[in-house]
Amino acid sequence: MADTNRIEELKKFDESKIGVKGLSDSGITTIPKMFIHPPESLPDFNQMKTQTNIPIIDLAYMNSKDHRARIISQVKEAATNWGFFQVINHGISQQILDLTLKSMKSFHMLPYEVKSKYYKRDEAQGVMYTSNNDLYRSKAACWHDSLQIWMGPVAANMEEIPEICRKEAVEWDANAKMVAENVMELLSEGLGLEAGKFKELTFSEARVMLGHCYPYCPEPYLTVGITPHTDPGVVTVLLQDEIGGLQVKHGDEWVDVKHVNGGLIINVGDFLQIISNGEYKSVQHRVLANSTKEPRISIVEFFNLTKWKGDGYYGPLPELLSPEKPPIYRNFTQQEFHENLYSKGIDTKSLVQKIKIEN
Of 156, 209, 312, 353, which residue is most buried, by most CB within 10 angstroms? Predict the structure, then answer.
């Protein structure tokens, strides 16, 4: 009976198309039951922290012969030990960063009547405004809404993108791709491969952008902005505002990712962990529910490949394997990858765990 009630509650919320922002704006003082997470999955706000932030890497001289080897080493170390790092002097102006965040906030601040015409559930293409991509697949809903725009390999129809953020979204995609490809060169060289290897393997061609809004939550200790998870693809580029709330798992500790002026956050996805044969780590991260009155905005772009290898399988890159370093993951198909992505709630390292070779 409880399950039936929950499904009805989910459907009622979904069909209202008001999103979490609409709930928050209505002035509620308690959150609906569907958003309440079990105590064991909620953050421990009393946990003592020893780490203060993820590594920060300056890319200003990445193309200088005198500095490139040092920057490659910094990126490799961060991707190996943290799975996350922030980059500064990456080539995107502060003005573009600010305009991108402002345009996405403007979309989420639109009246319900305007936003609701974009509201749907079609994750694999085009433009989708929704609350919780995995609403019907997760155990509890999270306190956020998202505008999702596919940028490649089949870009969303330009007219589908809300006009209030259209120009900025397209410009952001071009800039985020530039940063991702530069970082991929450094990551590739960190593995001892050619700088252009990842680009040649089409690792930046499948691109989807999400503009998340985390509205004020009246009971932030009962829910989360996004549950702990790892990203499925190659790399992720994230632009966040000053409000904060992103946390990264490092060892047994959840580390707050502090806002760095002009900074972009980069993280390793499951796919990159697998093809690097475990050299680079895809790590859990989560977002706390927003307790400030101002909505938190973040813009994330996921990068993945379009061209699967000739046999239709992917696994650790052969160039990285040797008798001393045998594969620790088996090959997997594109179908396995997509089924794993779309068949469940946002979770952690499921594909990595499924294909790990047990010794």
Answer: 209
CA angle 18, 20, 21 (to 5 degrees): 75
CA distances (Å), origin 55, targets 81, 139, 263: 10, 33, 11
pLDDT tens column, 212-249: 999 999 999 999 999 999 999 999 999 999 999 999 99
Is the separation of the CB atoms in 306 and 205 below 8 Å? Answer: yes
**Total number of residues shown for the chain:** 359
Helix axis angle for 166-190 and 94-108, nearest 10°, is: 130
Task: Report yes or no on whether pTM surpasses 0.70.
Answer: yes
Cis-peptide into 162, omega within 30 deg: no
b/e map 125-140, b = 16+ CB within 10 Å: ebbbbbbbbbbeebeb
- What letter would DSSP give residue 119? B
pLDDT of 344 above 70: no
Tokens describing residue 292? 């400030």
